[in-house]
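User: Hi! I have a protein structure encoded as tokens and I'd like to know what sequence might fold into it. I'm fairly new to this, so please keep things simple.
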């Protein structure tokens, strides 16, 4: 029934005038994004995209902050590439819809989106990879991180992780924790990027964090992809050496330029 209702709403939203009036439905659509089936989420996203596209920055700013927060979990939907693509593309569009204090409020959500967007630049679906590249560039511009803008524009994939750590050193542990979740991603290409980043980010962490990271990587010795097993083994060995060499009682070694 909900799917049928959304189909009707989607048809009405094709009219710019009706789309503007549907602003009052956006909060309900946000709930659907959290709880609905994949098909329902996809329809709700399309409606949100149409409605937000018809609103001015002043009208859209406050709802854009809340909507962005609901989009982030959809980036990693492993069953429906179209859901990944539309949520990532809408993320890019929302960055242009905020102004004033809402722009400051959105910064934390944008930072949380950086790592998923980078990993999905290696997505198996080309349209998702391209959308992720555009979104990461948009996020870098939003945050005014010029070095990140440069490496994304020049497609220097291998430098993006280092750039993130150098640009925002205080988030190194958060980035590491976030990346560990991607070791279970359905796509081998995404898991591969996560392992590479973990090998970089974990080197500045405490002994305890290193041990936790090594333990997480060791589970990949059963991975179905040989290249993943190989890279995980190499990374585990390197981090084990780092752990041994670290001075007793040391905590974190800050990243240096």
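Assistant: Happy to help. Inverse folding works backwards from shape to sequence: for each of the 257 positions I chose a residue that suits the local structure. Here it is:
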């Amino acid at each position: 029934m909900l799917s049928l209702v959304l189909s009707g709403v989607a048809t009405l939203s094709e009219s710019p005038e009706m789309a503007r009036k549907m602003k009052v439905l956006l909060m309900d659509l946000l709930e659907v994004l959290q709880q609905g089936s994949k098909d329902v989420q996809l329809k709700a996203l399309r409606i949100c995209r149409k409605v937000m596209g018809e609103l001015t920055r002043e009208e859209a700013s406050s709802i854009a902050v809340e909507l962005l927060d609901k989009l982030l979990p959809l980036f990693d939907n492993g069953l429906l590439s179209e859901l990944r693509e539309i949520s990532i593309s809408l993320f890019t569009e929302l960055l242009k819809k905020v102004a004033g204090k809402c722009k400051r409020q959105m910064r934390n959500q944008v930072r949380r989106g950086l790592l998923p967007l980078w990993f999905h630049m290696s997505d198996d679906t080309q349209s998702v990879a391209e959308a992720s590249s555009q979104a990461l560039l948009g996020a870098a511009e939003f945050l005014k991180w010029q070095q990140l803008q440069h490496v994304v524009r020049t497609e220097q994939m291998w430098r993006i992780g280092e750039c993130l750590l150098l640009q925002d050193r205080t988030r190194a542990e958060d980035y590491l924790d976030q990346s560990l979740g991607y070791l279970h991603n359905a796509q081998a290409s995404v898991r591969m990027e996560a392992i590479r980043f973990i090998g970089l980010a974990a080197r500045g962490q405490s002994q305890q964090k290193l041990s936790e990271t090594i333990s997480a990587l060791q589970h990949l010795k059963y991975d179905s992809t040989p290249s993943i097993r190989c890279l995980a083994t190499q990374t585990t060995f390197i981090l084990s050496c780092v752990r041994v060499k670290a001075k007793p009682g040391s905590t974190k070694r800050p990243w240096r330029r």
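A useful reference point when you look it over: The CA atoms of residues 192 and 228 lie 6 Å apart. Feel free to ask if any position seems puzzling.
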